[in-house]
Amino acid sequence: MSEDGQLLRFDEGYVSARIFNDPDVHRRELENLFPQCWLFVAHETEIPNPGDYVTRQMGEDPVIVSRDAAGKIHVLLNVCRHRGRKICNEDSGCATHFRCGYHGWTYDSAGQLTGVPFINAYGTTIDRAQLGLYEAQADTYHGLIFACRKPTESLRDYLGPMAWVLDLLFGRTDGVEVGGPPIRWVADVNWKLGASNFVGDGYHIFTTHGFSTQLGLHALKPRGSTGAPVGHSLALSHGHGASLVSSPSGTTEAPFFGLPKELWPELERHLDAEQRHVLEPLIVAAGNVFPNLSFLDTAGHTPEEWGGPPWPVSFLTLRQWQPKGPDRMEALSWLFIDKNTPAEWRAASRECYERVFGVGGTFEQDDLENWASITEGVGGDWARELWLQYRMGLDLQPTDDWRGPGACYTASPPFFDILERLFYQEWQRLLGAEHGQVLR
C-alpha cells in the first residue's frame, strides 16, 4: 500500500494485499458497502408457508427472513428493540411470533411489537407501534429473495444485465427449488476471496484443481474434440460478472446442462431464442452477484465409468460468503433443482454436487486451502506492503460478436483478470473512496 493509503491501482492491475486482513477496511465495508447493496438472504422455497422463517446475515447483522400471516416476505433485524438481545437463535422454523428470551418482548412474523410483559410499569412511555423490529426493503427475482438497508435503486435495476444470466439458471423452467437447507461452514478466510474467485478466476483451475485435468475432467481441448471450449466472460454493471463456457461447435453431448428432455418444453416457454441459443451448449456457468453471492452450474463431473448414470447430469449451486471479521467468513452453499425434474435425475444431481462442491467436496477443499493461505499470508506487516497481481488482459477489448448483455471478453488461452478488476473497482466505489484513498 502506498503512503497515501491507496488500496487499488485499477489501470495498472494492482490490488493492495492489505484489503484482505485489515480491520479498518473491514469496518468501512460494514458501514458503507453492505448497507447499499441488495444482498441475497434466502430462496422462496425455503419459506413456502405463512409463519415460515430462516435466520441469515446482512453483512454482520443477523436477520430473520419470514412470511407473515398473509404470506408477505419480511427481512427483519434479529435484535430486540428493548435491550438488544438476538430474538431468534434457530436456523429455521415456523412460528406465529418471536419472543425475546431476556424480558419477553414479543413480535409477530411481520416484526410488529405485540407483547410487553408488565407494560403498565412503563406508564405512558411505550408506544408499541413505534417499536417493531427494524426492517430492510425486500424483493425477489425468480424466487431469489434479496434485501437492502439503504437502497438507491430497485432490485431489478441493481441486477441490470445480470438478470439475463440469472434467467438461464433460475428462470429457465417452471421454477427451481432448494434441495434442502444450505450446507454451512466457517473458515479463516476473507469473504472477498471467494467472491472474486467465482466472478472471474479461471486461471487457477489447471493448477489448484490439477487432479481433474489429469483425470480428463478438464482440459483445454475436451476428449474426442478437435476444438477448444468457447468461453464468454461478461462484465456487467455494479461489479457483477459471469463466465459462460460452451462445448466446441458441433460437440454438445449434454444440451441445456444435461437437463432431462421432459423439461425442454419449459425452456421454450421461459427463455427467448437468444437465451436458448446460449444455454444449449453450456458446460459451465459461473459468476458472482456483487458483493457476495456466487453461482455455479456445471455438467460432466459424474462419468458413467465412475459409477455415474448413463446419461448427462449437472448441478446448480449458490454460495454466499458472509463476513465474520476481516479474516474470517461463514460460507453457505445451496443445491437447487428444477422442480419438475424426475426423481432419478434429482438424486444424481445431488450426488454430483456433494462430491464436487459440498463441504467435503474435492474442489471445495482445494479452494478453501488457497483462500485461507492467502488470508494468513497477507496478515503480517511486511506482506501487507505487497501489491498483488491482477494484470492479465489489461489491454484486452470486448468482442463484437456477442449478442447478449454486457461487455463480453474472449481470449486464447481464456485467462484474464478483467472481471476481478471490475469487482474491486465497484468495491472501491462503494467504500466511498476517491482514487482508492480509504485509510487515514
What does this molecule look like?
- This protein is 23% helix and 26% strand.
- It has eleven helices and 22 strands.
- Strands 13, 14, 15, 16, 17, 18, 19, 20 and 22 form a nine-stranded antiparallel beta sheet that branches.
- The chain is globular and about 80 Å long.
- It starts with 7 loop residues before the first strand and ends in a 10-residue tail after the last helix.
Helix content: 10-25%
- Oligomeric state of the chains present here: single chain
Largest sheet: 9 strands, antiparallel
* pLDDT < 50 runs, ≥5 residues: 219-225, 434-440
Mean pLDDT reading: 89
**Alpha-beta content class:** alpha+beta
Counting DSSP E segments of at least 2 residues, the number of strands comes to: 22
Beta fraction of the residues? 25-35%
Q: What is the terminal separation in angstroms?
A: 12 Å
Calculate Rg over CA atoms.
23 Å
**Overall spatial form:** globular
Number of helices: 11
Can you lay out the helices and strands and say which pair or pack?
Elements: E1 8-9, E2 14-16, H1 23-33, E3 39-43, E4 52-58, E5 61-67, E6 73-77, E7 92-94, E8 97-99, E9 106-108, E10 113-115, E11 135-141, E12 144-148, H2 155-159, H3 162-170, E13 176-178, E14 183-187, H4 191-200, H5 205-208, H6 210-214, E15 230-235, E16 241-246, H7 264-270, H8 273-279, E17 282-289, E18 293-299, E19 314-323, E20 329-338, H9 343-357, H10 362-377, E21 387-389, E22 407-409, H11 418-430
Antiparallel strand pairs: 1-2, 2-21, 3-12, 4-5, 4-7, 5-6, 6-11, 8-9, 9-10, 11-12, 13-20, 14-20, 15-16, 15-22, 16-17, 17-18, 18-19, 19-20
Helix pairs in contact: 4-11
